[in-house]
Specification:
By secondary structure, this protein is α+β, with helices and mostly antiparallel strands. Helices cover 45% and strands 20% of the residues. The strands form two sheets. Strands 1, 4, 5, 6, 7, 8, 9, 10, 11 and 12 form a ten-stranded antiparallel beta sheet that branches. A two-stranded antiparallel ribbon has the order 2-3. The longest helix is centred in the N-terminal third of the chain and has 45 residues. The radius of gyration is 49 Å and the shape is rod-shaped. The termini are far apart. The N terminus is likely disordered.
């Protein structure tokens, strides 16, 4: 059969036949070749269309595997999105406590919601994913992750500030005057003058008294009421007599005047409960007593607002030594 086809198609052998001319053979060959080309092209087109139709209506193993992987990936994105939403809710609760509790207690400025919860962070970066239905869940998940990261960063900075403020508050608690400068529970101690307007005991004219006078026996211990540094420890010629001034920081200072003795030096660091002197009768005074002042930002405030019972009786007994003597009831 192959030999027959060869002789039929070969022009040289066809030319030797008496029935056809050489030109007619050439035309016949061309028409046959054209038919074969047309049939080949039609076959390719039909097979392609058949493949397309079959793949459209019937899933191939490859398409089934691809669909399975896509469904698994989408499920993972949905799971991640739910987890991120749960963490976002927890973070929102923490932000609420931060503003309403932590910052309120520490008297810190509230961080606005517009700063804590930025809108549409990263939407431009994931715009292609967000507007394609097939990748929208991935885009939403990435957008939520970006927003959660931003909120967590802001909260971490807030917690750093709160930690710093807490440390300052702890130091402030130790420094702000908060105990009595003298053992007022002692039977021979009494308050002989309070804070406010009164008649001057020496000149008999109205004057504003900037502190509290504790009348008591000479040489009774006087205690510093908060941690601080001694900034003045000497005799004052303007009426205070022997005087100690302690700077507690945070805008607070305390003054202890009319002392009999001064037991600290300028520049000393003293802690709450340290004995800084003894009750005396120096300066402008009508009898043994100790004048106590509290000043905040260079203005006097009522010292009674800074009395506290944060020291137990046992702790106070370690500091206070009971002394005997007559109370002269002095004031300044």
């Amino acid at each position: 059969m192959l030999v027959c086809n060869f002789f039929c198609l070969n022009p040289k052998f066809i030319y030797n036949q008496d029935t056809l001319s050489y030109e007619e053979v050439q035309v016949s060959l061309k028409s046959k070749l054209l038919r074969w080309v047309v049939l080949l092209v039609v076959g390719i087109v039909l097979s392609t269309m058949a493949t397309f139709v079959l793949s459209y209506h019937f899933e191939t193993p490859r398409s089934l595997l691809l669909k399975k992987k896509t469904d698994l990936l989408q499920w993972r994105f949905e799971l991640m999105s739910r987890k991120l939403q749960e963490e976002d809710a927890k973070l929102d609760a923490l932000l609420q406590r931060d503003n309403s509790v932590y910052r309120s207690v520490l008297e810190a400025d509230i961080i606005p919601v517009s700063v804590r919860q930025p809108n549409n962070i990263g939407i431009g970066k994931h715009q292609t994913l967000l507007f394609d239905p097939s990748t929208q869940i991935a885009g939403n998940t990435m957008l939520l992750l970006n927003q959660l990261t931003q909120k967590a960063y802001i909260q971490s900075k807030s917690l750093e500030e709160i930690s710093h403020l807490t440390q300052q508050k702890e130091q402030m608690i130790l420094c702000i005057p908060s105990i009595q400068p003298i053992n007022i529970a002692h039977p021979k101690i009494r308050i002989s003058a309070v804070y406010g307007w009164r008649t001057d005991p020496i000149h008999g004219v109205p004057e504003f008294h900037d502190g509290i006078d504790f009348a008591g026996p000479i040489d009774m211990p006087v205690y510093v009421t908060g941690n601080g540094r001694v900034v003045d420890a000497k005799f004052n010629f303007h009426g205070y007599g022997n005087m100690v001034v302690v700077d507690h920081g945070f805008g607070y200072q305390t003054r202890y005047a009319h002392l009999h003795t001064i037991d600290v030096h300028e520049g000393d660091w003293v802690t709450k409960g340290t004995i800084i002197g003894k009750v005396g009768n120096t300066g402008k005074s009508t009898g043994p007593h100790m004048h106590y002042e509290v000043r905040y930002r260079n203005k006097s405030v009522d010292p009674v607002n800074f009395f506290s019972n944060d020291i137990t009786a046992e702790e106070f007994e370690k500091i206070v030594k009971a002394l005997s003597g007559d109370v002269a009831g002095g004031t300044d």
